[in-house]
Amino acid sequence: MEEKLYFYYTNDLHSNFEQWPRVSSYLKKSKALRKRRGESSWIIDIGDHVDRSHPITEASMGKSNIKLLNNADYDFVTIGNNEGITLSHQDLYHLYDEADFQVVCANLNSMDQVEPPWLNKTIKIESVNGIKIGLIGLTAPFNAFYELLGWHISNEFDVLDWHIADLKQSVDVIIVMSHLGISVDQEIARRYEDIDVIIGGHTHHLLRHGEYINNSVITAAGKHCSFIGEVILTWDHSEKSLVKKEAYTTDITNTVKDLPTEQHMQEMQLEADQLLGQTVVQLDQPMEVNWFTETPIIKELTNTLKVWTKADAAMLNAGMLLDGLPAGAVTHKDIHRICPHPINPVVVDLKGDELIEVIRAALSHDFMELKLKGFGFRGEVLGRMMFSGLKVETAYHKNGKEYVKQVLLSNGQPVDPDHTYYIATADTFTFGRLLPEIAKSDTKHYFVPEFLRDLLAHTLRTKFSGR
Q1: Architecture of domain 2-271 in CATH?
Q2: What mean pLDDT do residues 4-32 have?
Q3: What is the rounded distance in angstroms from the CA atom of residue 17 to the CA atom of residue 19?
Q4: Which of 140, 175, 273, 377 is deepest in the core (most CB within 10 A)?
């Protein structure tokens, strides 16, 4: 006799709630179908469901996301870096208190040795006909952030060495729920023959029909839940083994929405508006924002960044502020609207010659016009870099291109190429290759759990109140 096992999954929603009523509709119908047929099915999320760039998530510190997962009848989730490093220790500790599903993450540990009651290292389940399945969750090791927040992420391979050896003694099928990214998933598949399925996320890769490496099928469904993933495993009870592994993703962008879910989300939005409606500051005049020239608000925010972090200088791109503010009462909702990014301040050390190279790159046309997607940035373009504690003199070539003539310190002295300076900026630039000298800096001090919008609120209170 053959038995099919069905796993439906989502990954990297990033609080893209416009899509969620379609997700809920598709999953409810799929699970109902399997139940009518007497088949085993489960619904899984692979992390980064939470994203504080959305006001509903911001107002509830992710608790609204958990309600939505409950209502869609999820069975298991693992955490992504947006759950893990954009919330305070206490907010993450209590994030899943009301969850109707199980949370599994084998490489997350609280540094105070007090683990949240919802945290499972592995989970064992059975199908309707007794097939034993082991689930293990893993999340990306951003320990530079996690450890400042009181958590530690263990190396995924050390964790797998321990748990895979244990699971294979007691289960028939092993599934890894991985918020590690495609390249790590591929390496896991190469190393561990006992893993049957790797359901992935984090790097927003879309595998329409799965990828087969060694004994594993790897799958992932992109980002924002435009696609939902499905894994179908066929078990032969006479042979006592899996005889087929399939993985698919389905485009649900035209799926009919679940109306109760849509109504529930409208109620959540009204509640979020109320919670974020507290006045932060009263402005006598409107506050202009321009992504390519200096304005009072971006200038003062960059100054605040320097003072807050006690750095030698600060640099911040004007595209961090998405819109201006009208005269009158400014609320937390307004501040979140114009600065939605889950981005923390950071201080890096740079030699003077590295600092000059960073400034040259940041003032290039390609950098300023870059429509960045990711690394926490939720804006349109990066915009022009602003400076505090530095005077950057530029000029123009005959072809119209701007170039850096010289960089001076606040005391008028040139930057010393061999001296080390402590530069405050947005943590965005410590990732990837946007500004390589910053990304490669040996010393990075992140400020958590403060976001740039917390510094923006402070700036408005101290520099613009009553203007």
Answers
A1: 4-Layer Sandwich (3.60)
A2: 98
A3: 5
A4: 175
Q: What is the pTM of this model?
A: 0.94
Say which residues have a Cβ less than 8 Å from residue 178's Cβ, sequence separation at least 6: 46, 78, 137, 138, 184, 185, 188, 198, 199, 200, 201, 202
Among candidate residues 155, 152, 136, the one with its CA nearest the CA of residue 144: 152
CA 115 and chain centroid, separation: 22
Q: For the segment 312-359, what is each residue's pLDDT rounded down to a tens digit?
A: 999 999 999 999 999 999 999 999 999 999 999 999 999 999 999 999
**In angstroms, rounded to a whole number, what is the distance separating the alpha carbons of residues 372 and 185?**
25
Is the pLDDT assigned to residue 402 strictly greater than 90? Answer: no
- Sequence-ordered alpha helix ranges (H) in 214-351: 259-275, 296-309, 332-338
CATH number of the structural domain 277-464? 3.90.780.10
C-alpha Rg value of the chain to the nearest Å: 24
Q: What are the structure tokens assigned to 378, written together? A: 């939720």
Fill in the DSSP letter of residue 312.
S
Beta bridge partners of residue 245, listed in sequence order: 233
Q: 401 pLDDT band (50/70/90 cuts)?
A: confident
Report pLDDT digits (tens) over 83-98. Answer: 999 999 999 999 999 9
What residue segments make up the domains of the chain, in order of their start? Answer: 2-271, 277-464
Q: What is the DSSP letter of 278?
A: -
Please give the backbone phi and psi of residue 414, each rounded to the nearest 5 degrees, phi first. Answer: -65, 155
Helix (H, G, I), strand (E, B) or coil at 314: strand
| Cβ burial, residue 19 (10 Å; 0-12/13-18/19+) | middle
Instruction: Name beta bridge partners: 229.
Output: 9, 249
Distance from CA of residue 281 to its chain's centroid?
A: 29
**DSSP 3-state of 39:** coil
